[in-house]
Design goal:
The complex is a heterodimer. Chain A is mainly alpha-helical. Chain A is built from 7 helices and no strands. In chain A, helix 5 crosses helix 7. Chain B has 3 domains: 53 residues; 122 residues, Jelly Rolls; 72 residues, Phage tail protein beta-alpha-beta fold (3-Layer(bab) Sandwich). In chain B, the strands form 3 sheets. In chain B, strands 1, 2, 3, 4, 5, 6, 7, 8, 9, 10, 11, 12 and 13 form a 13-stranded mixed beta sheet that branches. A 3-stranded mixed beta sheet of chain B has the order 15-18-17. The radius of gyration of chain B is 26 Å and the shape is elongated. The chains are: A mainly alpha, B alpha+beta. The interface between A and B is large, with 95 and 91 residues.
């Protein structure tokens, strides 16, 4: 097995040795489950390891807490979206429903889209989805939603800014 | 806010172009003008490229060409992100409320669990025989009226004692199984479950789909939405009881998932190699050797980052 990038590895290993038990304990206390706590704690350190320069970290515990919070948030959000999707699907006639495997793929994409369009208004989201996923022209969107073309241009620009920023993270 | 203008004026120009390009009303003259704009500088091209990359999520989405109503409805789901992060950071708490990962319904059952690299076997009060693979956890609620079991994580094999009028119900995050008796194996993965029916008499009740009977000798993958995939059962489905991991043309990701319970810390498989197919027989109790064999037979590199973190990536 390979052992790469020594200084970085030493840094992360040191942070791990000093703070892993603390983080796991905190997570176990909060989640009430030691196994989940172990998983989140390990995934947190993995994200830390993937940072370009872990050596520059000043307050490891603050950063670990932030990353762990984001991971927990993502888990929650994923579950909420899955549930919402299954509920929305119940309104679709059975013969038009995707197969369970397709559903899984659709949910993955739903989660990615949700993350990318985070913070966007519901109206802008609708316009953008109709344009990019249903392939409607602005005139067709205008007919469907009763918005002015100028407004559709504005909302599209907002959504595109989200997509542009989305790659920063 | 994400909808605010971008700092880079070139990026704002690129967005202006893209808004017009997507309108459905973009002619050849405009196309030529866009080309000239793009070629003004390397920075212009770069910015435009990045915007295209951001749109790729949508261009490649399986939602393309489908009715978008279910998608839009799901995205309406209120997002507590900001409120959550604010409170959590301000008060310094991590999460409120227990059981958020177990999918609820934990209650006060009798609990059986195994730790990393440990297997266990128990005779239950109704005469059933329960066996757990490494890092697995099960809760039981048995009384005169019901026999209920929940697999929280990991993998189990159960020989169900047949009791008149009292089938055993086994719950996972994706649904439930009802068994009248006989043997079945069940593994819980994120978002889906895998059941191996060694005998007849098992019914599957996915949380959000119709119930169905499962024939004997089949491997069934299911999620809350129903059956994902069904295949014939391999000869070595229960090989883990003897400490072996046996794979027939299995994606590497599944194989590593099965190994996780045998390693402390975290094993991460990079997505580009998770789909590689693997066949073979590997020792569970020597996961180091198993990884060594995999590295030699597949175009992958196993990188031991630290005691607690192992990465599997493309060569």
């Amino acid at each position: 097995m390979d052992v790469p990038n020594l200084p970085k590895q030493q840094t992360v290993t040191r942070i791990f040795q000093q703070h892993y038990l603390w983080l796991r304990g905190r997570l176990a206390f909060r989640t009430g489950c030691s196994h989940s706590a172990e998983d989140i704690a390990a995934e947190t350190f993995l994200r830390l390891w993937m940072l370009p320069d872990p050596g520059a970290i000043r307050e490891p515990r603050a950063l670990l807490t932030t990353i762990a919070q984001r991971l927990m948030y993502e888990t929650w959000r994923r579950r909420d979206l899955e549930k919402a999707y299954l509920q929305a699907l119940a309104l679709v006639p059975e013969e038009l429903q995707p197969s369970p495997h397709e559903q899984l793929v659709l949910v993955e994409s739903l989660i990615a889209i949700d993350r990318l369009l985070d913070g966007l208004s519901s109206q802008a989201r609708t316009v953008f989805v109709l344009s990019q996923l249903e392939g409607l022209t602005y005139v067709q969107i205008q007919q469907r939603l009763g918005l002015s073309l100028g407004r559709i241009h504005q909302l599209m620009a907002q959504a595109l800014r989200c997509c542009y920023r989305g790659l920063e993270e | 806010m994400n909808a605010q203008r971008l700092d880079d004026p070139v990026a704002e120009e690129a967005i202006d172009w893209m808004v017009r390009l997507q309108s459905g009303d973009f002619d050849a003259a405009q196309q030529a003008e866009l080309e000239r704009w793009r070629n003004r500088s390397a920075h212009h091209r770069q910015v435009y490229q990045r915007l295209l990359a951001g749109l790729a999520q949508f261009q490649q989405s399986p939602w393309r060409g489908r009715a978008s109503q279910p998608l839009l409805r799901s995205l309406e789901q209120p997002d507590g992100r900001r409120a959550f992060l604010r409170t959590a950071l301000g008060v310094g708490l991590l999460v409120g409320g227990a059981g958020w990962l177990s999918g609820g319904g934990a209650g006060d059952g009798l609990e059986y669990r195994t730790r990393t690299a440990e297997r266990g076997s128990w005779r239950l009060s109704d005469g059933s025989q329960l066996q757990l693979n490494a890092r697995s956890r099960v809760s039981l609620w048995f009384d005169g009226e019901q026999r209920r079991l929940r697999l929280h994580e990991g993998e189990m094999l159960i020989q169900v004692a047949p009791l008149v009028q009292r089938p055993l119900s086994i719950h996972t995050a994706s649904g439930a199984l009802l068994s009248e008796g006989g043997q079945l194996a069940l593994r819980e993965l994120s978002g889906r479950s895998r059941v191996v029916t060694l005998h007849e008499g098992v019914r599957l009740l996915p949380s959000a789909a119709a119930a169905q009977a499962l024939p004997a000798g089949r491997v069934t993958w299911f999620s809350a939405g129903g059956v994902l995939e069904q295949t014939a059962m391999g000869a070595m489905e229960t090989a883990w009881l003897q400490g072996w991991l046996v794979a027939h043309n299995e994606p590497l990701g599944n194989l590593v998932e099965a190994l996780r319970g045998y390693r402390k810390g975290w094993v991460r498989v990079e997505p580009e190699v998770a789909g590689l197919r693997v066949s073979g027989r590997f020792p569970l109790d020597d996961s180091r050797q198993t990884l060594e064999i995999l590295q030699q037979s597949l175009p992958i590199r196993v990188v031991q980052v630290s005691d607690w973190l192992l990465l599997i990536r493309a060569v």
